[in-house]
Known about the structure:
Keywords: Cytoplasm, Hydrolase, Metal-binding, Nucleotide-binding. The protein is an alpha/beta fold.
Amino acid sequence: MRILITNDDGINAPGLEVLAEIAAEIAGPDGEVWTVAPAFEQSGVGHCISYAHPTMLAQLGPRRFAAEGSPADCVLAALFDVMVDTPPDLVLSGVNRGNNAGENAMYSGTIGGAMEAALQGLPAIALSQYLGPRTAGLDDPFDCARRLGAKTVRQLLQHGDWTAGDDFRLFYNVNFPPVAASEARGLRVAPQGRRGGERFGMRPFVAPNGRRYLWISGGAQDAEATPGSDVAANLDGFITVTPMRPDLTCHASLQGLAQALDEG
């Protein structure tokens, strides 16, 4: 198997090293792992592409490239340049330092990379490691993802539905709980949730030179969330799998809205 890996934390991020280990185990001794990742951190860019300016690409080693762009740019760079003659069988994005559960999924560059792969017709999985007080004291905060990542990917490759019966290929969002691997309680398929309380906001600061700046601020990652959701299951110690697709249509509203507009 030929696997492409990318992330949004950057080419030198420790989570990408974890993902390379996972990918190597999945690819096997006869497989290949290719890396095309952002040259610099791209957290929070979502599914952004560098439409208005070019992307510089540098080869750092065998099958290892850094792109000055977003995770979605990296996937495009791989498919249309780096791996154009040898396309990947699978795209893995991560392992993100921090969770991409709940509303975080809407901002995530990690998920953006997997989404671009799905739009290009490839199976893709985004992987993220939830962090918290129980991971802060670990020698390896990625312990859960490192030790259970390959098993989780194998399960999805074996049992995942990659088509959903329509024009949009599914991809999967995996979040490892904020515990050691030995404390993980198993795997749950869960919908994307939403935390209560403060979420992303913006706060003003004054720099030493007197200039005024605005900084993005985030809410508590352990805030109570939708029961049965990815966030709730993660905080309860479970690995979560959420099937996603690049389709923002609210299908439940289509018929009612069409009828109301026709009658109006």
